[in-house]
């Protein structure tokens, strides 16, 4: 008996608009989606009175057609239309939205503007870095259709445990733009791929990329007063297209292949065992305040997408002119759709949220105890395995380090850790007790979540580099064109005796030691350490602590430093490897100080005398012993930090007969004896005491007490 199958019925056009066959489109997904025979376009605007699709052909300046979307193609606030006969590879598009222009009510519709689709996967029109753009050009940018044929070759997100993570914050362009980088395509995703072997050798496990979404690097009107050159929006914290990789970061961007080039970067990093976290900026957009350009959100539905005062002005909790209305239900859905896209289509391993406290503000700017967006991100099924990192403050004064609504999912940039370590190393009084709390994962802030909720850092892209932290007492931002008024004044830095460049050997030696001190404390603290690209080789910004505007040697990674400062590089590499070798430094739970079934308490505090810490306000010495028994193996690490200008004789904790203290690092020792390859640490001759030098950090490890061929140290 034969079965007669029903005849297949495909979608077919029902109308012709501007000589194009069309039909009512599918409302979801938003954006432009290739379908059999054409492309489906779907865009949201709750307050527009009409919507027009503007079609372009790649390479042609003027539109090839403008198609008013019929009212019968709208359902609710969504306009959707399928257009047949379009080639996704050559089609570009935008929208005109008509509606009221009543700023006092929040409406700023302007049908003379061709608007970007918020869901556009590709933006075209600014694919070469540093070329000035004319914001009055009606057709400056167009939306494109992303190719969907990338071969991932079985790649998956790595899902590395948080406690095993070492984050490396990097700027895509700055990492390889310098002439010394030696890559074929400097300043691009492809260029970064060529430097993956360097990252592997360094030992980092996660690269946190500063913004890679489309932004306009030319929207800074200031000039460098020293050189007269135009300054840039170099960092990229001013998003134009949230779904679109920045074309000028791709060597193939001029060919519209930036999507594939970024996907390849992720794939190659994963092959090397390195995760990828994206720095995302959902707190504001490039449209700025009332004087800024209308590019997308403002022209589509200003009152929905931005936080507005009762008289229609922009709340400015971001410090950049506008604030995204994150907890409006439509905007919340947009943010979720965006992150799902990057997690699913680009295989990224996590996100760092810039000025994340804004994500927890109500539509009128109030701080919410249970913000819907943050809760949705924490519980989203697609994002379940993604690392979520909050910069837990904003420019409106909402500081939530330790109190960000985390829903047991978010970790935080720990600004308290940064400030305490800086102050201790500078020699400030009264911070030793707080440092003790920070190096064990800040249990006062993250007791419920554990040490992995604390992303520890001493430096970040925003502020001094590690080299400059020990070389300048004051910021030197004169070249930013703002009269040195920009940038933070509270740097907790110390120049070690001379401001800026010097040839004084004592000052230079102290600066080198202080850099090692900071790096060693960071990498032996419980939590998730973050290093800024270049700190491992002493990169300088010449005292500039707000280099957001410099696309030049101030911001670029000078690869000549890899050889010049190979001693600092080797020290950092050893410290990262040491952390990886010792589970006592990589805990998911805070230590309690209690004795279990092992040799020692899981954490103990010491001073000049073993088991006797000194917590007085004038003390500048601290020593901590981390201990765990992992799979039957004892792991014991002793860390002492002396911020005083005098040495101190340390009484060491006594070990059982089968163990002995071995020296991993002493930052006062000359290279190459300042650190050792993990596993090759020499046994101390004197097992009872150690003289710690002024302004130095010491790390010992308990190893076999038997004689070895590793040699012995003092």
Tell me about this structure.
- This protein is α/β, with parallel strands linked by helices.
- It folds into two domains: 162-583, TIM Barrel (Alpha-Beta Barrel), CATH 3.20.20.80; 591-713, Golgi alpha-mannosidase II (Immunoglobulin-like, Sandwich), CATH 2.60.40.
- It contains 14 helices and 32 strands.
- The strands form eight sheets. The chain has an eight-stranded parallel β-barrel.
- A hairpin with a 2-residue loop joins strand 3 (31-35) and strand 4 (38-44).
- The chain is elongated, with a radius of gyration of 28 Å.
Quick structural summary:
The chain is of the alpha/beta class and 714 residues long. Helices cover 19% and strands 22% of the residues. It is elongated, with a radius of gyration of 28 Å.
Question: Which SSEs are present, and which pair or pack?
Answer:
Elements: E1 15-17, E2 20-24, E3 31-35, E4 38-44, E5 50-57, E6 65-68, E7 74-75, E8 78-84, E9 91-98, E10 101-102, E11 107-108, E12 122-124, E13 142-144, E14 167-170, H1 172-176, H2 189-194, H3 196-202, E15 206-209, E16 213-215, E17 239-245, H4 258-271, E18 275-280, H5 297-305, H6 329-345, E19 350-353, H7 372-379, E20 387-390, E21 410-413, H8 415-426, H9 432-439, H10 443-446, E22 454-457, H11 466-469, H12 505-523, E23 528-532, H13 561-564, H14 566-581, E24 603-606, E25 621-630, E26 633-642, E27 648-651, E28 659-666, E29 683-684, E30 689-692, E31 696-704, E32 712-713
Parallel strand pairs: 14-15, 14-23, 15-18, 18-19, 19-20, 20-21, 21-22, 22-23, 29-32
Antiparallel strand pairs: 1-2, 2-8, 3-4, 4-8, 5-6, 5-9, 7-8, 9-13, 10-11, 12-13, 16-17, 24-25, 25-26, 26-31, 27-30, 28-31
């Amino acid at each position: 008996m034969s079965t007669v199958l029903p005849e297949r019925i495909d979608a077919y056009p029902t109308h012709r608009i501007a000589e194009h066959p069309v039909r009512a489109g599918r409302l979801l997904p938003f954006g432009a989606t290739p379908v059999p025979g054409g492309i489906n376009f779907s865009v949201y605007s709750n307050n527009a009175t009409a919507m027009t699709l503007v079609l372009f052909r790649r390479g042609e300046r003027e539109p090839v057609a403008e198609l008013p979307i019929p009212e019968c193609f709208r359902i609710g606030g969504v306009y959707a239309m399928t257009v047949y006969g379009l080639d996704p590879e050559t089609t570009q598009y935008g929208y005109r939205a008509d509606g009221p222009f009543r700023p006092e009510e929040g409406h700023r519709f302007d049908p003379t503007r061709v608007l970007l689709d918020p869901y556009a996967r590709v933006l075209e029109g600014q694919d070469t870095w540093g070329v000035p753009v004319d914001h009055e050009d009606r057709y400056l940018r167009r939306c494109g259709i992303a190719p969907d044929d990338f071969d991932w070759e079985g790649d998956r997100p790595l899902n590395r445990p948080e406690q095993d993570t070492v984050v490396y914050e990097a700027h895509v362009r700055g990492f390889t733009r310098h002439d010394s980088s030696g890559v074929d395509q400097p300043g691009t995703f492809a260029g970064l791929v060529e430097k993956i072997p360097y990252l592997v050798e360094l030992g980092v496990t996660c690269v946190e990329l500063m913004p890679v979404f489309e932004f306009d690097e030319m929207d800074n009107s200031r000039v460098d007063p020293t050189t007269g050159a135009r300054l840039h929006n170099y960092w990229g914290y001013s998003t134009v297209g949230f779904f679109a990789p920045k074309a000028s970061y791709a060597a193939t961007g001029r060919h519209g292949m930036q999507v594939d080039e970024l996907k390849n970067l992720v794939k190659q990093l994963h092959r090397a065992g390195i995760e990828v976290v994206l720095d995302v900026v959902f707190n504001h957009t490039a449209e700025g305040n009332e004087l800024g350009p209308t590019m997308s959100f403002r022209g589509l539905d200003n009152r929905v997408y931005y936080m507005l005062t009762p008289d229609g002005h922009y709340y400015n909790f971001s410090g950049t002119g506008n604030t995204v209305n994150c907890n409006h239900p439509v905007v919340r859905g947009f943010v979720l759709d965006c992150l799902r896209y990057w997690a699913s289509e680009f295989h990224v391993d996590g996100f760092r949220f810039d000025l994340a406290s804004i994500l927890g503000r109500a539509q009128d700017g109030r701080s919410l105890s249970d913000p819907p967006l943050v809760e949705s991100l924490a519980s989203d099924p697609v994002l379940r395995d993604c690392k979520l990192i909050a910069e837990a403050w904003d420019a409106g004064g909402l500081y939530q380090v330790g109190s960000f609504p985390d829903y047991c999912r978010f970790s935080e940039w720990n600004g308290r850790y940064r400030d305490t370590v800086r102050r201790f190393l500078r020699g400030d009084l009264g911070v030793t007790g707080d440092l003790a709390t920070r190096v064990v994962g800040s249990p006062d802030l993250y007791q419920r979540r554990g040490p992995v909720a604390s992303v520890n850092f001493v430096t970040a892209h925003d502020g001094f580099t590690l080299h400059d932290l020990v070389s300048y007492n004051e910021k030197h931002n004169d070249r930013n064109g703002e009269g040195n008024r920009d940038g933070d004044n509270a740097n907790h830095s110390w120049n070690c005796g001379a401001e800026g460049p010097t040839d004084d050997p004592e000052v230079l030696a102290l600066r080198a030691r202080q850099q090692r001190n900071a790096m060693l404390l960071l990498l032996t603290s419980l939590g998730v350490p973050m290093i800024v690209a270049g700190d491992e080789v002493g990169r300088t910004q010449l005292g500039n602590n707000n280099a957001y505007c410099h696309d030049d040697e101030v911001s670029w990674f000078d690869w000549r430093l890899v050889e010049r400062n190979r001693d600092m590089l080797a020290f950092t590499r050893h410290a990262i490897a040491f952390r990886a070798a010792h589970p006592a430094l990589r805990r998911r739970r805070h230590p309690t100080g209690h004795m279990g079934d092992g040799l020692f308490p899981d954490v103990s505090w010491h001073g000049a005398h073993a088991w006797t810490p000194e917590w007085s306000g004038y003390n500048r010495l601290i020593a901590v012993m981390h201990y765990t028994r992992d799979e039957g193996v004892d792991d014991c690490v002793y860390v002492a930090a002396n911020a005083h200008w005098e040495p101190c004789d340390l009484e060491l904790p006594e070990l059982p007969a089968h163990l002995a203290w071995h020296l991993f690092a002493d930052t006062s020792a000359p290279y190459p004896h300042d650190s050792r390859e993990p596993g090759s640490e020499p046994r101390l001759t004197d097992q009872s005491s150690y003289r710690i030098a002024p302004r130095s950090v010491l790390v010992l490890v308990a190893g076999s007490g038997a004689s070895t061929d590793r040699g012995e140290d003092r």
